[in-house]
Amino acid sequence: IYDADDEAITNWLQTNRTEATLLPFSIKKEVKRGAYKKDNNIIIKTDSNIFTMSIATLALQGGHNTKNAMASAMVAKLLNVRNETLRESLEDFESVEHRLEPVLKINGVQYINDSKATNVNATYYALESMTTPTIWIVGGVDKGNDYTELLPLVREKVKAIICLGLDNAKIYETFGNVVDLMIETAGAEEAVKVAYKISEKGDTVLLSPACASFDLFENYEDRGRQFKEAVREL
Questions:
Q1: What is the pLDDT of residues 167-220, one digit of tens each?
Q2: CA nearest 101: which of 116, 90, 89?
Q3: What does pTM read for this prediction?
């Protein structure tokens, strides 16, 4: 079971032989056998069995979660899990703490804790899943990050950036000409208060740091807990 949208994987499969049965999944193209996205539905084809489910009903939203649902659904169908059971599982699945974790909605503003996003790739998927104007809390210990792959998503979705870290030079350098409002903060409580002050009804405040947490926090769990506590104290 593999991601047919991943160029590295598909290239490897074209040049290497395997005795394994190949079942691809894709959100970009239709496949004969496997899983794909069509008309905002996921379609799972294994043998003669076809399973269809609306993406809007998945418990976890975002392109990466759609792919995760496809992969896990294929495993379930290969193990002959009933369609009703599979559908209920995908609709009711609870997200992991600190990974795109909804905290509270206050005055029409949704606060999301994605403290587990300690690299650019994880934050990419977080930003991709945003459907409303986003105030993005980012920063920490930079692990040689290249933020440029986030530029299209930031242009499209982010209305303000709140920096949470001791060295934010690279963040300013990358996004300073893209986002009108960028603010430095020195802790989770201050970041949340600033986000509350500048947010408007319908916005999302997303903590997705793209960095390690060891400059201001013990670890990403501590960072996420402090963020949630600050939100609950608003």
A1: 899 999 999 999 999 999 999 999 999 999 999 999 999 999 999 888 889 999
A2: 116
A3: 0.80
Burial state string for 90-121 with b = 16 or more CB within 10 A and e = fewer than 16: beeeebeebbbbebeeeeebbbbbbbbbbebe
CB-CB contact of 159 with 134 (8 Å): yes
Domains, the chain, ordered by start: 2-92 (3.40.1190.10), 101-232 (3.90.190.20)
Q: How far is the C-alpha of 14 from the C-alpha of 12, rounded, in Å? A: 5
pLDDT at res. 61? 80
H-state helical runs in the chain = 7-15, 63-78, 83-92, 120-128, 151-157, 169-175, 188-198, 220-232
Of the candidates 98, 65, 182, the residue with the CA atom closest to the CA atom of residue 135: 182
Distances from the Cα of 47 to the Cα of 23, 30, 32, 44, angstroms: 11, 16, 10, 10
Positive or negative: CA dihedral 87, 26, 71, 138: negative
Q: 6: which residues sit within 8 A by CB, 6+ positions away?
A: none
Count other C-beta atoms under 10 Å from residue 21's C-beta: 9
Report residue 20: phi and psi, to 5°.
-75, 150
Query: Does the pLDDT at position 95 exceed 80?
Result: no
Partners of 44 in the β-ladder: 35, 51
Give which of 162, 97, 158 is closest to 127, Cα–Cα: 158
Taking phi over 0 as left and psi of -120 to 50 as alpha, with beta for the rest, 62 belongs to left
